[in-house]
Write a structure and sequence with these properties.
The complex is a heterodimer of chains A (285) and B (188). In chain A, 38% of the residues lie in helices and 24% in strands. Chain A contains 4 helices and 12 strands; from the N terminus they run ααααββββββββββββ. The longest helix of chain A is centred in the first third of the chain and has 36 residues. Chain B is an all-alpha fold and 188 residues long. Chain B has a single domain, classed as Arp2/3 complex 21 kDa subunit ARPC3 (Orthogonal Bundle), CATH 1.10.1760. Chain B is built from 8 helices and no strands. In chain B, helix 2 runs antiparallel to helix 3, helix 2 packs parallel to helix 4 and helix 3 packs antiparallel against helix 4. Classes of the chains: A alpha+beta (285), B mainly alpha (188).
Chain lengths: 285, 188
């Protein structure tokens, strides 16, 4: 009797492991196919429940979030003090050029925003998020019924958030720019140096710019934007000049091994609403 | 060895609640740049309370549900949660630890197993991420943050499952010595 129980337990465990591996093999590499269709169907049914739960639990999230905000506020306070000292120095120096530059940048930002507004922005609410450190995705409450398709860029008022990965009727899964598999063509807005922005695994507040050359002069506080399509054979999914982040550090500058660390403008850990760009004008990308 | 229908019903409800709560709320709460994961805790505590087979099946179903809800690669979460559920269940079956620190220790082990297990499987599946100090640090912090929730989650799971769990043999033994005048001591 005891042996039978052990045998049965081992058989169940083996069945579950084999089942998991079979599912993994069948669904690996994308959500197309029969299994993906079932998955999307179930997720379509679940989305309203998730949306309801997400809305209902927002006060709880905000309450708990305020505890974390206290720590962030301390760090931010320190940063702001440094910024204030820097701003005072600029004021004392009376560097009119810097102020003029800031004015022009603000104007440029406004122009950029106006261009995005023509691209069929679909606003969406974030209704779910993966707990996984490496596989960073969010789920939003707009899907194919609203014109959302895989590969479309997702933004907030601050800049690039990621791309649409999987789409269902009333939901879409967005791969964040901090996901291990994310990459986007980028350029330094001051100077036009191009490269590829990739995530820095385990650091949600940091990206890295790769494929730059030793002669490329990238400096701290340079702004990174999407480069758009440079070769029509390989069209970019992103329109040009979407803000990505600011260079926070350049390690070994001027060497072949220079590492450009970028602080993204968007805080992916704090997203409530996003916009999907559904109409990418090829003449502008 | 297999669960009663009352227990199955409670487990199904518990799994649904845990996954919806995780995906819709807990994952969106950031503490020290990371977030807690309550699902491995729930799976581990189901193992502690109802045994390895029940917990392994519960873990498989919970994993399938979470991968479906997020339209991720099916089987990844199931594989991790089956291991966690079975491990916690075997601990109960072989050692039956009674210390009040057990839920905390099991919660920490389950959280670490989930965080590092997911990372390992993602790497095996070809995730293009470098193993860096930041990644290890975030996995460790994620483990610690989840561990903080171990005791309240254990209390919740215990409260949810206890009415449907079969009687603990130890409790039955204790009752036999104290009731009904059957004890030789009570005949005096």
């Amino acid at each position: 009797m005891h042996d039978k129980t052990i045998r049965r337990r081992r058989l169940v465990l083996l069945g579950l492991i084999v089942g998991s591996l079979l599912l993994l093999t069948a669904s690996f590499g994308g959500s197309a196919g029969g299994l993906g269709a079932i998955q999307r169907g179930v997720s379509t049914v679940l989305s309203p429940i998730q949306e309801g739960a997400s809305r209902a639990l927002k006060p709880v999230r905000d309450g708990v979030g305020s505890v974390g905000d206290t720590f962030d506020a301390k760090r931010e306070n320190k940063q702001l003090r440094t910024d204030l000292a820097e701003a005072r120095r600029v004021k004392v120096d009376g560097n009119a050029l810097q102020q003029e530059n800031a004015e022009l940048r603000r104007m440029l930002d406004m122009n950029e925003r106006a261009q995005i507004q023509d691209m069929g922005l679909v606003p969406a609410r974030v209704i779910g998020r993966s707990p996984n450190v490496i596989n960073q995705v969010i789920k939003i409450n707009q899907g194919s019924a609203d014109g959302v398709k895989p590969g479309q860029p997702v933004v907030t008022g601050r800049g690039l958030v990621g791309t649409v990965d999987v789409v269902g009727l009333n939901f879409a899964v967005v791969k964040l720019l901090t996901d291990a598999d994310f990459g986007a063509g980028a350029k330094v807005s001051e100077g036009g140096i191009t490269g590829v922005v990739v995530p820095s695994a385990g650091a949600p507040r940091e990206l890295r710019m790769e494929y730059t050359e030793a002669t490329d002069d990238v400096r701290k506080n340079n702004t990174l934007v999407t480069s758009g399509t440079s070769d029509p054979k390989f069209p970019s999914p992103f329109p040009p000049d979407l803000p990505i982040g600011q260079v926070s550090e350049v390690e070994d500058p001027g060497s072949d091994t220079q590492v450009i660390r970028v602080r993204p403008f968007v805080d992916v850990r704090d997203l409530n609403f996003v916009e999907v760009i559904t109409k990418l004008d090829p003449s502008r990308s | 060895m297999f669960a009663s229908s009352a227990l199955v019903g409670r487990l199904a409800l518990l799994g649904l609640l845990a996954v919806v709560l995780q995906v819709s709320a807990v994952s969106q709460l950031t503490i020290f740049d990371t977030n807690a994961d309550v699902v491995p805790l729930v799976v581990a505590f189901v193992g502690l309370l109802s045994g390895s087979v029940t917990a392994a099946i519960f873990g498989f179903a919970a994993g399938l549900f979470i991968d479906t809800a997020l339209v991720g690669t099916l089987g990844v979460s199931s594989l991790v949660y089956v291991a966690i559920g079975h491990g916690a269940g075997r601990l109960r079956e072989l050692r039956d630890p009674q210390s009040s620190f057990v839920p905390l220790a099991v919660g920490a082990a389950a959280s670490a197993g989930a965080a590092f297990g997911f990372a390992l499987i993602q790497f095996l599946l070809g995730a293009e991420a470098a193993i860096s100090f930041e990644l290890i640090r975030q996995l460790v912090v994620a483990t610690l943050v989840s561990t903080l929730l171990a005791l309240p989650v254990y209390a919740g799971v215990r409260r949810a499952l206890l009415p449907a769990l079969p009687d603990d043999p130890r409790r039955r033994r204790r009752r036999a010595y104290t009731t009904g005048g059957l004890s030789p001591l009570s005949r005096r």
